[in-house]
Amino acid sequence: MAKRLSQIVRGGSLVAQPWPNGRGLTRDVVRRTAGDGRLDWLVSLADLAEDAPFSHFAGIDRIFTLVAGDQVDLVLDEGAALPCRTLVPAHFPGDRPTRAILRNGPGRALNVFVDRRRRRAAVAILLLAAEHPAWPGRETELLHCVAGRVGACGSALDPGDSLLGSGPEPVRALGGPAVALAVRIWDAPSADAETRSEV
Question: Which are the contacts of 84, defined by CB distance < 8 A and separation ≥ 6?
Answer without folding.
Answer: 64, 66, 71, 72, 73, 74, 90, 109
